[in-house]
Amino acid sequence: MATTGTSPDSAVEHFGELIRPGKYGHHLTRDMYAMMNKKSSTRIPEYLLTDELRALLSKHYEDAEMTIHTDEFCSRHREMALENFDLNMAFFAQLPHESFDDALGEMLRKNKRLRPITDLKTLDEEWGVYVLVLDEYRQAYIGQASWDMRKRIKAHWSGTKQFDRLLWGGVEESVMSIDSFRALDTTRIFASRTINYDALETRLVNTFPPDFLLNRIGGGEVTGLRGLFLSTEMKRRQLIADEAADNL
Predict the structure, then answer these.
(1) I need a labelling partner for 90 at 20 to 30 A (CA). Which of 56, 108, 213, 225 fits?
(2) Within a 13 Å sphere around the CA of 95, how many CA atoms are in the beta-carbon half?
(3) With contact defined as beta carbons under 8 Å apart, do 86 and 92 qualify?
(4) Count of Cβ atoms closer than 10 Å to residue 126 Cβ
């Protein structure tokens, strides 16, 4: 891997790709987290919208179609997202580097087909499973691609998690999304080229220690009825503030 030109305002070469800082920069920062966006990222299917559910949700929207959130909702949601951000940062800080490296090493020893990647171009149009390692945070993300691992990884780096999806669960339990981190937060990449990507991803996600994992749900493709009931698979963390930890 070569990373050059680390000025926050300049493009850098990272895993063989030219990465431009864009709106959110090269690294995750609190200042650029939870940027308000009133547009809803989801549409609830009409057949699920009972009168009771519509009455409950409508107060959070400006329009009857429930596509634009109110200013009050956005302000409160941002406060909660930033509180969750701080809790996650405190959680990461107390994780031992050595324990994370041991867990990652154990996963690699048990899965010999996961090989280190130094140039994303080698994953161009390749099917398989990839592991993004964020050493500063002692976290990893395990993903799959059925069409192009290079493009999938770059999508994590170039976008950001939708504002109204920053929280998945309560403030004190929501796992931060890999899409909230930036390109240079990824410090190592491992990948396996395989057509059995679904089974491999599921096995890796289900066996890697959850404290070190950014995945919000279990592995495997999200298709059919599973997409409607993902909340039942929600991965939760027990996040506590620094002050609470000092009293333990």
Answers:
(1) 108
(2) 24
(3) no
(4) 18
